[in-house]
Amino acid sequence: MSLGKQPEAFGGGSLPSSACEIAKLVRNGELKAEEVTEASLANISSRDSEINGFNTVLVEQAMEESRNLDNLIAKGGYGGRLAGVPIAIKDNICMRGIPTTCSSHILQNWKPPYEASVITQLKQEGAIIVGKTNMDEFAMGSSTETSFFGSTKNPWDTKRVPGGSSGGSAAAVAAGMVPLALGSDTGGSIRQPASLCGVVGIKPTYGLVSRYGLVAFASSLDQIGPFAASVEDAELLLGVLAFHDAKDSTSLPGTMYSLEKSPSETSALKVGIIKNFLPNADESCRNAVINAGEFLSGLGAKVEETEIPELDYGIAAYYIIAPAEASSNLARFDGVRYGLRADGKDVEEMNVTTRTEGFGREVKRRIMLGTYALSAGYYDAYYLKAQKIRTLVQEAFNKAYESYDVLLSPTSPSVAFPLGAKVADPLSMYLSDLYTIPTNLAGHPAISIPYGTGEDNMPVGLQILGPALSESVLIQVAKLLEKR
Predict the structure, then answer these.
(1) Which end of the chain has fewer CB atoms within 10 angstroms, the N or the C?
(2) Pick the CATH number of 10-263+446-483 from 3.90.1300.10, 3.40.1190.20, 3.40.50.1820, 1.25.40.10
Protein backbone atom coordinates (compact mmCIF):
# COMPACT_ATOMS: atom_id res chain seq x y z
CA MET A 1 0.00 0.00 0.00
CA SER A 2 1.67 3.20 -1.20
CA LEU A 3 1.67 6.50 0.64
CA GLY A 4 1.79 8.33 -2.68
CA LYS A 5 3.64 11.64 -2.80
CA GLN A 6 5.48 12.23 0.46
CA PRO A 7 7.31 15.21 1.95
CA GLU A 8 11.02 15.29 1.25
CA ALA A 9 13.09 12.80 3.27
CA PHE A 10 15.86 14.06 5.54
CA GLY A 11 18.99 15.04 3.64
CA GLY A 12 17.19 15.60 0.36
CA GLY A 13 19.05 12.68 -1.22
CA SER A 14 22.55 13.98 -0.42
CA LEU A 15 22.72 12.14 2.90
CA PRO A 16 21.19 8.94 4.29
CA SER A 17 17.61 9.55 5.43
CA SER A 18 17.74 6.76 8.01
CA ALA A 19 18.83 7.58 11.56
CA CYS A 20 20.20 4.04 11.88
CA GLU A 21 22.35 4.49 8.79
CA ILE A 22 23.56 7.96 9.82
CA ALA A 23 24.62 6.72 13.26
CA LYS A 24 26.43 3.72 11.78
CA LEU A 25 28.36 5.82 9.25
CA VAL A 26 29.27 8.51 11.79
CA ARG A 27 30.47 5.92 14.32
CA ASN A 28 32.64 4.31 11.64
CA GLY A 29 34.11 7.64 10.59
CA GLU A 30 32.62 7.35 7.09
CA LEU A 31 30.40 10.39 7.58
CA LYS A 32 30.98 13.56 9.60
CA ALA A 33 28.44 14.55 12.24
CA GLU A 34 29.20 18.15 11.30
CA GLU A 35 28.05 17.49 7.72
CA VAL A 36 24.81 15.87 8.89
CA THR A 37 24.10 18.72 11.31
CA GLU A 38 24.72 21.32 8.61
CA ALA A 39 22.23 19.53 6.36
CA SER A 40 19.60 19.45 9.10
CA LEU A 41 20.04 23.13 9.93
CA ALA A 42 19.90 24.01 6.22
CA ASN A 43 16.64 22.08 5.89
CA ILE A 44 15.21 23.91 8.89
CA SER A 45 16.31 27.25 7.47
CA SER A 46 14.70 26.57 4.09
CA ARG A 47 11.46 24.95 5.26
CA ASP A 48 10.51 26.19 8.70
CA SER A 49 9.37 29.64 7.65
CA GLU A 50 6.53 27.79 5.90
CA ILE A 51 5.96 25.03 8.50
CA ASN A 52 6.58 26.89 11.81
CA GLY A 53 7.67 23.67 13.46
CA PHE A 54 10.42 25.14 15.65
CA ASN A 55 10.27 27.61 18.54
CA THR A 56 14.06 27.64 19.00
CA VAL A 57 16.85 26.53 16.64
CA LEU A 58 20.19 25.80 18.34
CA VAL A 59 22.58 26.55 15.47
CA GLU A 60 25.80 27.29 17.36
CA GLN A 61 25.27 24.65 20.04
CA ALA A 62 24.43 21.94 17.50
CA MET A 63 27.45 22.72 15.33
CA GLU A 64 29.79 22.76 18.33
CA GLU A 65 28.47 19.43 19.61
CA SER A 66 28.79 17.82 16.18
CA ARG A 67 32.42 18.96 15.83
CA ASN A 68 33.20 17.68 19.32
CA LEU A 69 31.68 14.32 18.40
CA ASP A 70 33.74 14.11 15.20
CA ASN A 71 36.91 14.84 17.19
CA LEU A 72 36.02 12.14 19.73
CA ILE A 73 35.46 9.53 17.00
CA ALA A 74 38.66 10.56 15.18
CA LYS A 75 40.56 9.80 18.40
CA GLY A 76 39.02 6.33 18.63
CA GLY A 77 36.14 7.15 20.96
CA TYR A 78 32.70 5.57 20.75
CA GLY A 79 30.12 7.87 19.17
CA GLY A 80 27.04 6.35 20.76
CA ARG A 81 23.92 4.64 19.44
CA LEU A 82 22.68 7.93 17.96
CA ALA A 83 26.05 9.23 16.80
CA GLY A 84 25.58 12.40 14.78
CA VAL A 85 21.81 12.00 14.37
CA PRO A 86 19.99 15.37 14.46
CA ILE A 87 16.97 15.34 16.75
CA ALA A 88 14.27 17.88 17.61
CA ILE A 89 12.79 18.17 21.11
CA LYS A 90 9.22 19.12 22.01
CA ASP A 91 9.26 22.41 23.87
CA ASN A 92 7.89 20.99 27.12
CA ILE A 93 11.05 18.94 27.76
CA CYS A 94 13.62 20.89 29.80
CA MET A 95 17.07 21.72 28.50
CA ARG A 96 19.42 23.55 30.86
CA GLY A 97 19.83 27.19 29.84
CA ILE A 98 17.65 26.80 26.73
CA PRO A 99 14.16 28.37 26.52
CA THR A 100 11.52 25.78 27.44
CA THR A 101 8.27 27.57 26.77
CA CYS A 102 5.55 24.90 26.44
CA SER A 103 4.48 27.29 23.62
CA SER A 104 2.93 29.53 26.28
CA HIS A 105 3.27 33.26 26.92
CA ILE A 106 3.62 32.55 30.64
CA LEU A 107 6.91 30.65 30.01
CA GLN A 108 8.04 32.60 26.95
CA ASN A 109 11.49 33.45 28.31
CA TRP A 110 11.97 30.74 30.93
CA LYS A 111 15.31 28.90 30.84
CA PRO A 112 15.45 25.84 33.12
CA PRO A 113 18.39 25.51 35.53
CA TYR A 114 18.33 21.73 34.95
CA GLU A 115 17.64 19.32 32.11
CA ALA A 116 15.39 16.34 31.56
CA SER A 117 16.92 12.89 32.02
CA VAL A 118 16.08 11.99 28.42
CA ILE A 119 18.14 14.97 27.21
CA THR A 120 21.15 13.78 29.20
CA GLN A 121 20.68 10.31 27.75
CA LEU A 122 20.44 11.58 24.16
CA LYS A 123 23.65 13.57 24.55
CA GLN A 124 25.48 10.57 26.02
CA GLU A 125 24.44 8.54 22.97
CA GLY A 126 25.78 11.11 20.49
CA ALA A 127 22.52 12.70 19.32
CA ILE A 128 22.75 16.29 18.11
CA ILE A 129 19.88 18.41 19.41
CA VAL A 130 19.06 21.03 16.77
CA GLY A 131 16.07 22.74 18.35
CA LYS A 132 12.85 22.87 20.37
CA THR A 133 9.59 22.28 18.53
CA ASN A 134 6.24 24.04 18.56
CA MET A 135 3.27 22.46 20.33
CA ASP A 136 -0.21 23.13 21.63
CA GLU A 137 0.14 25.33 24.72
CA PHE A 138 1.06 23.12 27.69
CA ALA A 139 0.25 20.13 25.42
CA MET A 140 -3.47 20.98 25.54
CA GLY A 141 -4.79 20.51 22.03
CA SER A 142 -4.98 18.24 19.00
CA SER A 143 -3.89 20.57 16.21
CA THR A 144 -0.95 22.74 17.44
CA GLU A 145 -3.21 25.76 16.97
CA THR A 146 -3.23 26.82 20.65
CA SER A 147 0.48 27.73 20.56
CA PHE A 148 1.39 31.29 21.60
CA PHE A 149 3.89 31.24 18.72
CA GLY A 150 1.32 30.51 16.00
CA SER A 151 0.11 27.34 14.32
CA THR A 152 2.38 24.70 12.88
CA LYS A 153 1.45 23.63 9.32
CA ASN A 154 1.23 20.10 7.94
CA PRO A 155 4.11 19.51 5.46
CA TRP A 156 1.80 17.49 3.18
CA ASP A 157 -0.57 20.46 2.84
CA THR A 158 0.26 23.69 4.66
CA LYS A 159 -3.42 24.66 4.76
CA ARG A 160 -4.03 21.76 7.16
CA VAL A 161 -3.10 21.04 10.77
CA PRO A 162 -0.25 18.67 11.70
CA GLY A 163 -2.19 17.29 14.67
CA GLY A 164 -1.22 17.87 18.26
CA SER A 165 -0.10 18.48 20.76
CA SER A 166 3.32 17.39 19.42
CA GLY A 167 2.61 18.85 15.98
CA GLY A 168 5.97 20.60 15.65
CA SER A 169 7.92 17.39 16.24
CA ALA A 170 5.78 15.38 13.80
CA ALA A 171 6.01 18.09 11.15
CA ALA A 172 9.78 18.42 11.59
CA VAL A 173 10.24 14.72 10.77
CA ALA A 174 7.65 14.70 7.97
CA ALA A 175 9.27 17.75 6.34
CA GLY A 176 12.73 16.15 6.38
CA MET A 177 14.16 18.75 8.77
CA VAL A 178 15.27 16.04 11.21
CA PRO A 179 15.22 12.22 11.08
CA LEU A 180 14.11 11.92 14.74
CA ALA A 181 12.12 13.93 17.26
CA LEU A 182 10.78 13.65 20.79
CA GLY A 183 7.18 14.29 21.75
CA SER A 184 4.96 13.68 24.75
CA ASP A 185 1.71 11.73 24.76
CA THR A 186 -0.99 12.43 27.38
CA GLY A 187 -4.05 11.43 25.35
CA GLY A 188 -2.61 10.75 21.90
CA SER A 189 -0.24 13.69 21.42
CA ILE A 190 2.43 11.55 19.73
CA ARG A 191 0.27 9.11 17.80
CA GLN A 192 -2.35 11.50 16.44
CA PRO A 193 0.14 13.99 14.88
CA ALA A 194 2.21 11.03 13.64
CA SER A 195 -0.93 9.81 11.86
CA LEU A 196 -1.79 13.20 10.37
CA CYS A 197 1.80 13.85 9.23
CA GLY A 198 2.53 10.37 7.86
CA VAL A 199 5.33 9.39 10.24
CA VAL A 200 5.87 6.77 12.96
CA GLY A 201 5.04 7.66 16.57
CA ILE A 202 5.29 5.49 19.69
CA LYS A 203 3.57 6.03 23.02
CA PRO A 204 5.58 3.76 25.40
CA THR A 205 4.34 1.93 28.47
CA TYR A 206 3.82 4.38 31.35
CA GLY A 207 7.06 4.48 33.35
CA LEU A 208 9.25 3.04 30.59
CA VAL A 209 10.66 6.48 29.71
CA SER A 210 11.64 8.95 32.43
CA ARG A 211 9.38 11.96 32.89
CA TYR A 212 11.95 13.87 34.96
CA GLY A 213 12.25 17.28 33.30
CA LEU A 214 8.99 16.99 31.37
CA VAL A 215 6.76 19.95 32.26
CA ALA A 216 3.71 18.18 33.66
CA PHE A 217 0.26 18.34 32.11
CA ALA A 218 -1.46 15.29 33.67
CA SER A 219 1.14 13.35 35.61
CA SER A 220 -0.63 9.99 35.65
CA LEU A 221 -1.00 10.06 31.86
CA ASP A 222 2.06 11.88 30.43
CA GLN A 223 4.73 9.86 28.61
CA ILE A 224 7.67 10.90 26.41
CA GLY A 225 8.17 8.97 23.17
CA PRO A 226 9.77 8.98 19.70
CA PHE A 227 8.87 10.23 16.23
CA ALA A 228 10.68 8.83 13.19
CA ALA A 229 10.25 8.27 9.48
CA SER A 230 10.51 4.49 9.87
CA VAL A 231 9.74 1.84 12.47
CA GLU A 232 13.40 0.85 12.62
CA ASP A 233 14.45 4.41 13.46
CA ALA A 234 11.71 4.73 16.08
CA GLU A 235 12.88 1.46 17.61
CA LEU A 236 16.44 2.79 17.79
CA LEU A 237 15.34 5.93 19.63
CA LEU A 238 13.02 4.03 21.97
CA GLY A 239 15.91 1.76 22.93
CA VAL A 240 17.90 4.83 23.97
CA LEU A 241 14.99 6.33 25.92
CA ALA A 242 14.05 3.17 27.85
CA PHE A 243 16.10 3.21 31.04
CA HIS A 244 15.44 3.29 34.77
CA ASP A 245 15.76 6.74 36.26
CA ALA A 246 15.99 7.18 40.03
CA LYS A 247 14.88 10.81 39.60
CA ASP A 248 11.43 9.65 38.46
CA SER A 249 9.46 7.77 41.11
CA THR A 250 7.27 6.18 38.41
CA SER A 251 10.23 4.90 36.37
CA LEU A 252 10.12 1.13 35.84
CA PRO A 253 13.12 -1.07 36.72
CA GLY A 254 15.37 -1.42 33.70
CA THR A 255 15.24 -5.21 33.88
CA MET A 256 11.52 -5.21 33.01
CA TYR A 257 11.99 -4.26 29.38
CA SER A 258 14.14 -5.29 26.44
CA LEU A 259 13.75 -4.60 22.72
CA GLU A 260 15.60 -7.87 22.13
CA LYS A 261 12.73 -9.87 23.68
CA SER A 262 11.58 -12.47 21.15
CA PRO A 263 7.91 -12.02 20.23
CA SER A 264 5.64 -14.75 18.91
CA GLU A 265 6.02 -16.01 15.35
CA THR A 266 3.61 -14.40 12.91
CA SER A 267 1.77 -17.69 12.43
CA ALA A 268 0.95 -17.72 16.15
CA LEU A 269 0.02 -14.03 16.33
CA LYS A 270 -3.52 -13.26 17.53
CA VAL A 271 -4.86 -9.91 16.32
CA GLY A 272 -8.08 -8.21 17.39
CA ILE A 273 -9.67 -5.39 15.37
CA ILE A 274 -11.54 -3.02 17.71
CA LYS A 275 -14.89 -3.15 15.92
CA ASN A 276 -16.56 -0.36 17.90
CA PHE A 277 -13.82 2.07 16.84
CA LEU A 278 -14.64 1.70 13.12
CA PRO A 279 -18.10 3.32 12.62
CA ASN A 280 -17.01 6.85 13.61
CA ALA A 281 -13.90 6.81 11.41
CA ASP A 282 -13.65 8.08 7.83
CA GLU A 283 -13.76 5.42 5.12
CA SER A 284 -10.01 5.64 4.44
CA CYS A 285 -9.21 5.21 8.15
CA ARG A 286 -11.57 2.20 8.43
CA ASN A 287 -10.13 0.64 5.29
CA ALA A 288 -6.58 0.94 6.61
CA VAL A 289 -7.50 -1.20 9.62
CA ILE A 290 -9.40 -3.76 7.55
CA ASN A 291 -6.61 -4.01 4.98
CA ALA A 292 -3.97 -4.39 7.71
CA GLY A 293 -5.98 -7.21 9.25
CA GLU A 294 -6.31 -8.96 5.88
CA PHE A 295 -2.59 -8.62 5.26
CA LEU A 296 -1.65 -10.11 8.63
CA SER A 297 -4.19 -12.88 8.12
CA GLY A 298 -2.50 -13.68 4.82
CA LEU A 299 0.77 -14.12 6.72
CA GLY A 300 -0.85 -16.71 8.98
CA ALA A 301 -1.96 -14.58 11.91
CA LYS A 302 -5.34 -15.19 13.49
CA VAL A 303 -7.33 -12.00 12.94
CA GLU A 304 -10.88 -11.26 14.11
CA GLU A 305 -13.07 -8.34 15.11
CA THR A 306 -13.80 -7.73 18.77
CA GLU A 307 -16.08 -5.35 20.66
CA ILE A 308 -14.61 -3.49 23.65
CA PRO A 309 -17.48 -1.14 24.53
CA GLU A 310 -15.80 0.20 27.69
CA LEU A 311 -13.27 2.04 25.51
CA ASP A 312 -16.03 4.31 24.20
CA TYR A 313 -16.24 5.91 27.66
CA GLY A 314 -12.52 6.70 27.76
CA ILE A 315 -12.77 10.18 26.28
CA ALA A 316 -15.38 11.30 28.84
CA ALA A 317 -13.23 10.06 31.73
CA TYR A 318 -10.09 11.60 30.26
CA TYR A 319 -11.58 15.08 29.99
CA ILE A 320 -12.26 15.02 33.71
CA ILE A 321 -9.05 13.35 34.92
CA ALA A 322 -6.59 15.26 32.70
CA PRO A 323 -7.97 18.77 33.41
CA ALA A 324 -8.15 17.93 37.13
CA GLU A 325 -4.46 17.02 37.18
CA ALA A 326 -3.65 20.02 34.97
CA SER A 327 -5.39 22.46 37.32
CA SER A 328 -3.17 21.17 40.13
CA ASN A 329 0.06 21.07 38.09
CA LEU A 330 -0.40 24.52 36.58
CA ALA A 331 -1.07 26.17 39.95
CA ARG A 332 2.70 26.62 40.23
CA PHE A 333 2.65 29.28 37.47
CA ASP A 334 1.72 32.19 39.71
CA GLY A 335 3.97 35.06 38.66
CA VAL A 336 6.31 34.46 41.59
CA ARG A 337 8.34 31.34 40.87
CA TYR A 338 8.37 30.89 37.09
CA GLY A 339 8.16 32.87 33.88
CA LEU A 340 5.87 35.83 33.25
CA ARG A 341 4.98 38.28 36.03
CA ALA A 342 2.35 40.96 35.47
CA ASP A 343 1.98 44.04 37.68
CA GLY A 344 -0.72 44.33 40.35
CA LYS A 345 -1.44 46.45 43.40
CA ASP A 346 -1.11 43.38 45.64
CA VAL A 347 -0.13 39.69 45.42
CA GLU A 348 -3.65 38.53 44.59
CA GLU A 349 -4.08 40.97 41.72
CA MET A 350 -0.59 40.19 40.42
CA ASN A 351 -1.38 36.46 40.47
CA VAL A 352 -4.71 36.86 38.68
CA THR A 353 -3.32 39.28 36.08
CA THR A 354 -0.30 37.06 35.40
CA ARG A 355 -2.43 33.98 34.78
CA THR A 356 -4.99 35.93 32.75
CA GLU A 357 -2.31 37.35 30.45
CA GLY A 358 -0.06 34.30 30.49
CA PHE A 359 -2.44 31.42 29.68
CA GLY A 360 -4.31 30.99 26.42
CA ARG A 361 -8.01 30.23 26.07
CA GLU A 362 -7.75 26.42 25.91
CA VAL A 363 -5.47 26.22 28.95
CA LYS A 364 -7.83 28.44 30.94
CA ARG A 365 -10.77 26.26 29.87
CA ARG A 366 -9.09 23.11 31.12
CA ILE A 367 -7.91 24.67 34.38
CA MET A 368 -11.47 25.76 35.12
CA LEU A 369 -12.89 22.35 34.17
CA GLY A 370 -10.36 20.60 36.39
CA THR A 371 -10.84 22.92 39.34
CA TYR A 372 -14.61 22.46 39.08
CA ALA A 373 -14.31 18.65 38.97
CA LEU A 374 -12.14 18.66 42.11
CA SER A 375 -14.22 21.15 44.07
CA ALA A 376 -16.27 20.28 47.13
CA GLY A 377 -19.60 18.80 46.16
CA TYR A 378 -18.48 17.72 42.70
CA TYR A 379 -15.45 15.51 43.43
CA ASP A 380 -17.54 12.37 43.93
CA ALA A 381 -19.91 13.16 41.08
CA TYR A 382 -17.20 13.73 38.47
CA TYR A 383 -13.60 12.98 39.40
CA LEU A 384 -14.26 9.82 41.41
CA LYS A 385 -16.62 8.49 38.73
CA ALA A 386 -14.03 9.19 36.04
CA GLN A 387 -11.43 7.21 37.98
CA LYS A 388 -13.86 4.29 38.20
CA ILE A 389 -14.33 4.41 34.43
CA ARG A 390 -10.55 4.45 34.07
CA THR A 391 -10.42 1.19 36.03
CA LEU A 392 -13.11 -0.31 33.76
CA VAL A 393 -11.04 0.66 30.70
CA GLN A 394 -7.93 -0.98 32.18
CA GLU A 395 -9.86 -4.15 33.03
CA ALA A 396 -11.42 -4.27 29.55
CA PHE A 397 -8.00 -4.02 27.92
CA ASN A 398 -6.60 -6.72 30.21
CA LYS A 399 -9.46 -9.04 29.31
CA ALA A 400 -8.94 -8.39 25.59
CA TYR A 401 -5.24 -9.18 25.86
CA GLU A 402 -6.10 -12.60 27.25
CA SER A 403 -7.33 -13.39 23.73
CA TYR A 404 -5.12 -11.18 21.54
CA ASP A 405 -1.43 -10.28 21.32
CA VAL A 406 -2.20 -6.92 19.69
CA LEU A 407 -5.22 -4.83 18.79
CA LEU A 408 -5.70 -2.71 15.65
CA SER A 409 -7.64 0.52 15.26
CA PRO A 410 -7.50 3.80 13.36
CA THR A 411 -5.14 6.27 15.03
CA SER A 412 -7.37 9.22 14.20
CA PRO A 413 -10.98 9.36 12.99
CA SER A 414 -9.88 11.34 9.92
CA VAL A 415 -6.95 12.63 7.94
CA ALA A 416 -5.57 16.10 8.74
CA PHE A 417 -8.32 18.73 8.78
CA PRO A 418 -8.01 22.36 7.60
CA LEU A 419 -6.48 24.98 9.85
CA GLY A 420 -9.20 26.71 11.85
CA ALA A 421 -11.84 24.07 11.10
CA LYS A 422 -12.33 22.99 14.73
CA VAL A 423 -11.00 25.91 16.76
CA ALA A 424 -14.48 27.22 17.55
CA ASP A 425 -15.79 23.74 18.46
CA PRO A 426 -13.75 22.30 21.37
CA LEU A 427 -15.81 19.10 21.54
CA SER A 428 -15.13 18.32 17.88
CA MET A 429 -11.42 18.93 18.52
CA TYR A 430 -11.45 16.66 21.59
CA LEU A 431 -12.94 13.83 19.51
CA SER A 432 -9.74 13.78 17.43
CA ASP A 433 -8.25 11.73 20.28
CA LEU A 434 -11.15 9.28 20.50
CA TYR A 435 -9.03 6.23 19.63
CA THR A 436 -5.80 7.16 21.41
CA ILE A 437 -7.02 8.21 24.88
CA PRO A 438 -7.91 4.73 26.23
CA THR A 439 -4.28 3.60 25.94
CA ASN A 440 -3.14 6.47 28.18
CA LEU A 441 -5.81 5.66 30.76
CA ALA A 442 -4.52 2.08 30.88
CA GLY A 443 -0.81 3.01 30.83
CA HIS A 444 -0.20 0.67 27.90
CA PRO A 445 1.96 1.17 24.77
CA ALA A 446 0.74 1.86 21.24
CA ILE A 447 2.33 2.76 17.92
CA SER A 448 0.99 4.68 14.93
CA ILE A 449 2.39 3.95 11.49
CA PRO A 450 1.53 5.47 8.10
CA TYR A 451 -0.79 3.10 6.25
CA GLY A 452 -2.17 4.45 3.01
CA THR A 453 -3.73 7.77 2.07
CA GLY A 454 -7.19 9.24 2.24
CA GLU A 455 -8.86 12.48 1.22
CA ASP A 456 -6.69 14.63 -1.08
CA ASN A 457 -3.86 12.12 -0.77
CA MET A 458 -3.33 12.94 2.93
CA PRO A 459 -1.72 10.23 5.09
CA VAL A 460 -3.73 7.77 7.16
CA GLY A 461 -2.38 6.33 10.40
CA LEU A 462 -2.88 2.79 11.68
CA GLN A 463 -2.71 2.23 15.46
CA ILE A 464 -1.29 -0.99 16.92
CA LEU A 465 -2.01 -1.47 20.63
CA GLY A 466 -0.63 -3.95 23.14
CA PRO A 467 -0.46 -4.71 26.88
CA ALA A 468 2.15 -3.18 29.19
CA LEU A 469 5.76 -3.72 28.08
CA SER A 470 4.76 -5.28 24.75
CA GLU A 471 6.72 -2.75 22.67
CA SER A 472 8.82 -5.49 21.04
CA VAL A 473 5.69 -7.24 19.73
CA LEU A 474 4.15 -3.97 18.54
CA ILE A 475 7.36 -3.11 16.70
CA GLN A 476 7.49 -6.55 15.07
CA VAL A 477 3.91 -6.18 13.79
CA ALA A 478 4.60 -2.59 12.69
CA LYS A 479 7.62 -3.70 10.66
CA LEU A 480 5.54 -6.37 8.90
CA LEU A 481 2.89 -3.82 7.98
CA GLU A 482 5.47 -1.17 7.04
CA LYS A 483 7.00 -3.51 4.42
CA ARG A 484 3.68 -3.54 2.64
Answers:
(1) C
(2) 3.90.1300.10
